[in-house]
Amino acid sequence: MPCTVHPLPPSDLLHSVRILSRAFAHSAPLIDAMLPHHDIPAGHARAVASFEKSMNTDPTAHFLKATDDSTGAIFGWAEWLVLEKGLPHEEEAEEGYWDTAEEREWAGVLWGPVAAARTRAVEQAGGKLLLLNLLSVDPAYQRGGAGTALMRWGTRIADERGVEAILESTVVAVHLYEQNGFRVVEKMEWDLPEKFAGRAKPELFFMRRPARKDAV
User: Fold this and answer.
1) Which residues lie closer than 8 Å to 161 by C-beta, 6 or more apart?
2) In degrees, to the nearest 5, what angle opens at C-alpha 52 toward C-alphas 41 and 143?
3) Could you tell me which of 89, 98, 35, 34 has the C-alpha nearest to residue 61?
4) Residue 94 per-residue DSSP state
5) What is the phi-psi region of residue 210: left when phi exceeds 0, alpha when psi lies from -120 to 50, beta otherwise?
6) pLDDT at 216 exceeding the cut of 50
7) N or C end: fewer C-beta atoms under 10 angstroms in the chain?
8) Helix axis angle, 13-24 relative to 41-57, nearest 10°?
């Protein structure tokens, strides 16, 4: 299915969040924790507000959509961070974003290893790299080229700048990322506090794509 990558406007965020929810369902504990109730209208509204805030306040964030060349239908979307001076400051979530203090704490427990891995990689790169923060393809259009198109937007910029690219991958997405030059460098681990011992842990891999030395 021929598709083209375009900037994702705020008006498409609600549809994009619904795509994310269909794609991940409840198979990804990190998504469930960071985007609570992403499968119902109240959660949609929270997620849209969070992403729109990033659009408006984070100059490193680039939101993209892959659309059908003939109909304009959105096949998938992604958020790439183009970093020049390290990671952007993480804004606190709005009051009430999580239902309870415990759910907020759970999100922090899961986010901690992700933030640590990203920080290490960014510091090693001297603050300059490409970071894929999120990629989601509508299940109805998977294996149609949207994921690859969204990936190549970022890898092209990485190559133009001669910098590395990094991401976290689920088990099922590893092959897509390997096809685009990424390699697994570690399986991420979570040491859960006793109070959360019965909860499902994410199964994620940290992947890196080396800078291309011959990039212009």
Assistant:
1) 128, 130, 215
2) 75
3) 89
4) P
5) beta
6) no
7) C
8) 120
The sign of the torsion formed by the CA atoms of 212, 87, 8, 74 equals positive
The SS3 assignment for 7 reads: strand
CA distances from 130 to 60, 133, 186 (A): 9, 9, 18
pTM over 0.90: yes
Cα–Cα distance, 118 to 215 (Å, whole number):
23
Report, as an integer, the average pLDDT of 176-183. Answer: 95
pLDDT tens profile 108-145: 999 999 999 999 999 999 999 999 999 999 999 888 89
DSSP state of 89: P
The 10 Å CB-count burial string (b at 16+, else e) for 116-143 is: ebbeebbeebeebbbbbbbbbbbeebee
pLDDT at 111: 97
Closest CA to 78 of 161, 159, 180: 180
